[in-house]
Task: structure prediction
Amino acid sequence: MRWWEGIAHATVYVTGIAVSLAVLIMFYYIARESSYAFRQSFSWGYRLALLPADADPSVTPNSAPYSSLVAVNAEGADGLDEREEALTAPTIEQMQNESALLATATPLVSDPSQIRGDELYRDDWRAPQPAEKERRILVLGYAAPSYPHRFMYLAWEPDHSFDPQLAPYRLLLRLVRAPQGVAVQPFEIDLKRHPTGRLLLPVWVARTDSERAQGYLFEVAAVPYTTTFWATLRGLIGTEWAPTLIYPRYGMLPLLTATTLMSLLAMLLATPLGVATAIYLSEIASPRTREWLKPALELIASVPSVVLGYFGLMFVAPSLQHGIGQALEMQSGRNLLTTSIVLAFLAIPVVASVTEDVLKTVPESLRESAIALGLSSSEILWKVVLPTARAGIVAAVLIGAARVYGETMIVWILSGGTAAMPALHTPSAFLSSLVNSTRGIPDTIAIEMGNVTFESVHYGYLFLLGLVLFCVTVVANLIALRIGRRQVWRV
Amino acid sequence: MESVTENLLVTSRTSSTSRRLWRKLKDAFFIGALRVIAIVSIASVLAIIGVIIVKGLPVISWSFLTSPPQEGMTAGGIYPMIRGSLLLMVGTLIIVLPIGVLGGIFLAEYAGNNLFSRVIHASIVSLAGTPSVIFGLFGLAVFVIMMKMGVSLMAGCLTLALFTLPSVVFTTENAIRSVPESFIEAGMALGLSRWQIMWKIVLPNALPGILTGVVLSTGRAAGEAPPILLTAGIYYATGNLPKGWDILKQPVANLPYHLAEGYRQGGVIPEEIVWGTCLTLMLFVLSLNIWAIMVRLGVRRKQRW
Result:
């Protein structure tokens, strides 16, 4: 043995180990990048307003016709956010001209008596915080001397796309302090139970500028009950994928369900066709035919999926829409059903070619014994060959399913792109969601990765989706390997 | 067992002719049905290839293949994309060939047949079944962002190399395993070292199999859009292409990306150009396949074992 042979052996060893670790390395890095999702912060937005006692019931804080409206948004609990704007509160004279009622948002100070009525903080910006952090906003409410009624409404409503149900904290609206001499029961309202509402209160009239600071003091508090980590994971099990909202939602269930449904339908179509093709090739076709068809099958399997996608777009989608579009009230040819059909075209060659390999491993002696027993060809097939190859065929179907599950371009081009939860509860709803625009996991990753800021929360969530996809396909492949070991890989 | 006895009874002389006829009919029906299904499914998938050829062939001309796109991708040819796809394929080939072949040698000759080798096999099987978009994500995270390559040809080649790695490893392993044991024994009898047997006997005999497998899998990789989409693609391409080593650091236009991004842009590219690009991409991959099939047939004829 020469000295360089040792080096050669070492190189082979190192490369071999590196190659076998590749999947772990990939898993590690994708998991690492998905950690950006856990830097998510959970901002909240609520609006409080004082409304006149005779206010139109349709007037809500969000419709903002009153100058008294103050947005109470997610701001730093520790006082001034750098983008927070300190304004001088309007004087009594100014208020009489503009509005009779005022609620002002003020950051929390430990002692309510130190609140100064001539300053207010308008919180129109969102400065998100981790879910572990408690935050409170104080709101000061009072009326101008010109206010005619003896009562006023405190009205509350969530900010436009903010959904209190999804927030990983309890949201409470409390009365911290009533003005002196005003008899009112202290209250604490769970904003998750009553997201919007009104409360009738006795009016507090501020006759001088110093009296404003003694007005009603309300508190909106977000009290977390979980950590950012769990809140992020829980957010993943949501039914809405809307990452571009001001209060983004990263529920992956619609994508996961759509991808699973598409793969199931595609495999439902591809399994019989693919297995039948394989049986034909391996058991029925003459050697001459086989010699031509087997390479043809390999050729078909190598058609790039983006080309298949365009084929679906130009042929399958229009023909489906013209054919059964009317009957099923199909909006467009791009939908779950079309996607599944084209995915089946992708899966047929895969299933057929693996199944054919499996059937080849069925020992010839079994077939010969069956012939000797006088069984007919179809009986040999059903009673001898297929039962022997059953595990391998299941493995072949699983391999095809994993391939379809991760397919990106066909789904991108044909699914229509709406991240909507497929309805599964009634047959008719199911049917209509089959012909609706949808969106799967892989294409969401590919489409949205083009528009995200690198290393942002959205970026992290796309990696998290990738991780889910990775796990599903790896598990499917490992199961296939386990049950079809002898027949598929001959290990 | 029961069914077998039953069948024996059925085929015995005592059975009625009608029963025999029924069995024959059943047989013919099953076999016929299988034949029809198989032919329909193969024909329908072949029809896809046919349709794309029919649609794309009128578009393809010498000038379509050799001129850059014009007027904001709405006219002209697809030369930069073809060049980009070739560059990606060659780059991938250069990276994956040594690593994949060494990995295959390791699996075939070094790993043995024990728990360790089964774990390795399982990990490579998992890698082989991983969707291409996951490789794209990995390439984006590691090559583009962490190693600061940016969206570039280099990052794309590395990503595609990783994508093709498992199939190259498996092909190499199979090619090496298919070299007859007697060859190796002859080498041992001559007193050759393990490495000499590998280098002088096994590899030369396995080479055609390895090469066709590698070219096939890189060809398939060159047709995959998602990894390129995240690591190497660029949409607007003109005749003014980077030259020299600079191309490694620049994003490249290529065929699958052209189709994918063209779809994202929403119908800017005219339909004929899309069909032409589809056909070019398909021919690109199919011609590699046909070449590989020919090589394999040629080798099979030459082999005498």
Chain B touches chain A through 98 residues (CB under 8 Å). Chain B is about 75% helix and 0% strand. Residues 1-5 of chain B have pLDDT under 50 and may be disordered.
